[in-house]
Amino acid sequence: MKKLTALFLAAILAAAALASCGNDSEPSSEVSSESSITSELDSESSAESSAESSAEESESSQAEESSQSESAEPSEESSASSDTASKPSSGGSSASSKPAASKPQSKPSSQPPAESSEQAPPPAQSVNTDNGSTVPEGAELSLSSIISQLYEGISEENMPMVMEIALTAENSEYYVGVPSSSYTEGLASDSAIGSIAHSVCLLRAKDADAAAALAKDVEAKANPAKWICVTAEKMIVKQKGDLVLLIMASSSNADIISANFDNLSV
Fold first, then answer.
1. How confident is the model at residue 139 (pLDDT cuts 50, 70, 90)?
2. Shortest CA distance to 223 belongs to which of 214, 231, 215?
3. What's the first-to-final CA gap in the chain, in angstroms?
4. What is the DSSP letter of 242?
């Protein structure tokens, strides 16, 4: 009986020992299972992160490819337009599409141009006229321009109002005492008021010899009392070149006009 009790107790102890051993092994299995679960979670998270990074890289590469394709489109269009512009028209000949070959330009000579041994003639001098225009030297001044120069130096109060009259066959002898056939052209500058004795007549002969003979004829035939009611204080007849001047006026004005005629460049 005691042996049975002892065996029963031993069996109970053995079972208790076995149970305690089984309880001791469970925590390690649980730990190993937990670590395996943790590793699986870690692997899943790493796989997810790698998948996300690969997806991001794919998206960035797609964006770069899209931007490159967009930037390439204008250049392709411009190249296409340039190709279109460079192509010759179907209707033209092939020779017209070829650019003309440019001829090489000749280089300018480094040597200075040879100086001409002939010197250019000096510019002709000019003479001012009463209307502000100029006449080249050697050209004939008009009779009106010369008479205007003859009046220089006469004050306004001593200068009567005058009018110019072209001498003709009808009036020549009244103004200068000789016919118009004695000269080539003539002009009279007479007082516009008949009560003032003032007459300046300028004649142009065909040459200086004819002018000298004409001056003697005018001096002999001119009438200083042609106004009838008045007579000129002084009469002067002068000749210079092919010009003949007849002055019938006051003494002061006649002297000024005579001096101006002497200084005249004709």
1. low
2. 231
3. 188
4. T
